[in-house]
Amino acid sequence: FDILFFWVARMIMMGLKFMGEEPFSDVYIHALVRDEQGQKMSKSKGNVIDPLEVIEEYGADSLRMTLASLTVQGRDIFLSPERIESSRLFMNKVWNASKLALGNLDGQEMTDLPGSDSLRQHDRWIIRRVNEVNEQVRDHLKGYFYGEAARTLYQFVWNELCDWYLEMAKPALRGEEGNKRQTDTRIVLARVFDSTLRMLHPFIPFLTEELWETFGFGYGSLIEEQGWPELIPLGAPPALDGFEPMEVFQELVRSIRNLRAEARLHPQQEVPEVVLSLSDSAVKGVGEMIDSNSDLVSLLCRVGEIRFMENGSPRPSGSLMSVTDFGEVFLVVGQILDIKAEMARLSTELEKARRDLARSEKKLADPSFLSRAPGEIVEQERERLSQTEDKIKVIERNLKSLAG
């Protein structure tokens, strides 16, 4: 590894001497692969990771994706089975998402997108995100930032395509929004998977080649013969008044899900009602956007009716509250929870949280602890203190909200 620089220098000097030109313009030397503790691998230490054994257990694509995602210029790679397992789970995610798409495309061919006005908010959002990721990954690869490129694709596929878009597209794919919406969604889905598989191919070539053939995108040709995907043409989006609709939508869904978790509701239990109170500072159009996508909020959060109330109106009784950038969200649980029992449980949790807070404050006020404890232990205690303070605020807010 250490002599590679001298090999490169020798090749350049020989090229200039005998050919009159540099033999190459760019040289990429990847990082040294170490074990998970940062030690060099050696047979005597018994810490060698045999790539053939890894491929046999996890697959070649999992190993390839792991090495790519861990690559940071100027740093060595710390490799462990746990990291490779994480990439294997990503392979499963891509495979299962593709199965869902294949099961709903019904032979849909690659055609031009319908007009932007006929697409729903999440359709336009996923197309914009595919195009943005396309440009980001392409720039990363041009600059040899392979780790950044791999991580960008990982986050997009897992957190945006799978966790959000596919879930929101299911009603349309089932035909619940009408035949035209079903066809439009199939077209969007086909275009998104065509681009996504092409972008993933340099990192997981075996899986993407198999899926490419199954989708039938190349009409018999290999995916590696297709080249990098072009940006998907998308007409001008509807006029917005200074906000990104999907960001507001996601914040609302997360707020409701967090309130459900705080109430310890079963994932399949439906909450009868969610009430929204938009703040005076909420930008114009937020209410209309939420109202037009209330069916998807109900789908993703297992709630019944979603209604708005005037700012400053009395809080709904028997509800838990969350504060967002656009206003207040009330999860009405009075009909499905024993309010007195829930308040008693929260009071018990509040007492425990306050004891934990006092314990952390005492530790961090002790000069002996700060001077003797390792830095990471002190930092963990500070993080615990911050989390406990946040927890107390949430519990106090919920107690106040339930008390009406």
Question: Which descriptors would you attach to this protein?
Answer:
4 domains, 7% strand, alpha/beta, two-stranded parallel sheet
List the helices and strands and how they pair.
Layout: H1 4-18, E1 33-34, H2 51-58, H3 60-69, E2 77-78, H4 81-105, H5 121-142, H6 146-173, H7 179-200, H8 205-215, H9 245-262, E3 271-278, H10 286-292, H11 294-301, E4 303-308, E5 319-323, E6 327-332, H12 339-364, H13 367-372, H14 375-403
Parallel strand pairs: 1-2, 3-4
Antiparallel strand pairs: 3-6, 5-6
Protein model, in words:
Strands 4-3-6-5 form a four-stranded mixed sheet. A hairpin with a 3-residue loop joins strand 5 (319-323) and strand 6. The model has no long low-confidence stretch (mean pLDDT 88). It folds into four domains: 4-78, no CATH class; 88-225, Isoleucyl-tRNA Synthetase, Domain 1 (Orthogonal Bundle), CATH 1.10.730; 245-332, hypothetical protein PF0899 fold, CATH 3.30.2320; 339-403, Helix Hairpins (Orthogonal Bundle). With 404 residues, it is an alpha/beta fold. The protein is globular. The longest helix is centred in the C-terminal third of the chain and has 29 residues, at 375-403. Helix 4 runs antiparallel to helix 7. The chain is built from 14 helices and six strands.
